[in-house]
Amino acid sequence: MVLNIEKNHQRFRQIVHGKIKKELKKYITNSELIGKKGKQIISIPVPRIDLPRFRFDPNQTGGVGQGDGDIGTVLGPAGPQGSGKAGDQPGAHILEVEISLEELAQMMGEELELPNIQPRGKKNISSEKGKYTSIARSGPKSLRYFKRTYKEALKRQIASGTYNFENPVIVPVREDERYRTWKLVEVPESNAVIIYMMDISGSMGTEQKEIVRLEAFWIDTWLRSQYAHIELRYIVHDAVAKEVDHDTFFYIREGGGTKISSAYKLCSQMIKEQFPVNDWNIYLFHFSDGDNRDNDDTINSLVIIETELLPVANLFCYGQVKSAYGSGDFMGEMEAEIGKEPNVAISKINSTDEILDSIKTFLGKGK
């Protein structure tokens, strides 16, 4: 019976996964799912799932199987036509299923045909390190814990009445000895940092920021399935750049002009001070509507990317979000100057429907 239950459960999970994969774009562009995210799982609403089965006409007259039938003949009695007042009975409810972020990342990877990431150099190696975590009653003399041994001997002598306060000599016996014990812990050397940069000038509205929020969530989901540890950093900029926390990054409302180079300068400084290239896999994502202050700053921005960011980054991604107020010129300049670099990915995102295509553009290189 248990085996049958397990088989049925596995079959149900396969059906649910099939439903989710079929509507993956709809789920990825649904901002409500992010609000339902737990620590490692996410709650997804799916339509009611009915397994196909035959239904027979109880009247036993006419229809298919009782003489000649026509195409479209109903196998069962037709349901009542909707009419009259609103009913007072409960309707069919949508089922919510919980699925792990790892499973979602796998589905997205399969749907977009994303290759597994190959971290650079030794950073994809895991090493084992001994860590002293507890105390044992036996062990080698070299690991004997003198302080704990002394305390055990003192407690024993006081409890037995053999402790002499005038001549406090403590003599440990075999039962008093305590030793340090250790276990092997895996120390991953595969570290990754994602630095998100976003334009918050006046031309970037609520709709554009929502696109960035959704895309960043699914980028995080994929990269977390590839690395044991990921650090996240956030930079916002208009004419001036500053580092902010997660909530501020996605919900800040500011205006003003745009100076893209300010974000790249701060990003380069952050990498130099906190994330040395020999120890980190570095992913940079910048989102803007492409409306920069002037051509001189565009040139300056491209110089910083070429000379400071590309040499240290696994991947530099620029996503241009369509805005009614942005010129969009920066994307054209970037494509002409560095668009063919192997660790550069450039995407134009006109609406939430294009988020999946943008993610594939960014992560499809397996960098």
CATH first level of the largest domain: Alpha Beta
Write out the CATH superfamily name of the largest domain: von Willebrand factor, type A domain
Low confidence ranges: 47-51, 90-95
Kindly give the count of domains.
3
The name CATH uses for the topology of the largest domain is Rossmann fold
Portion of residues within helices: 25-40%
Number of strands: 10
- Strand content is 15-25%
Q: Please identify the oligomeric state.
A: single chain
Report the radius of gyration as a whole number of Å.
Answer: 31 Å
Main sheet overview: 6 strands, mixed
Any key phrases for this structure?
Rossmann fold; vWFA_dom_sf; DUF444 family protein; 367 residues; 3 domains; UPF0229; 6-stranded mixed sheet
Strand and helix layout:
Layout: H1 2-22, H2 24-28, H3 32-35, E1 41-46, E2 95-100, H4 101-112, E3 126-136, H5 146-160, E4 179-188, E5 191-199, H6 206-224, E6 229-237, E7 241-244, H7 246-251, H8 260-274, E8 281-288, H9 295-309, E9 315-321, H10 329-338, E10 344-349, H11 355-363
Parallel strand pairs: 5-6, 5-8, 8-9, 9-10
Antiparallel strand pairs: 1-2, 3-4, 6-7
Helix pairs in contact: 4-6, 6-11, 8-9
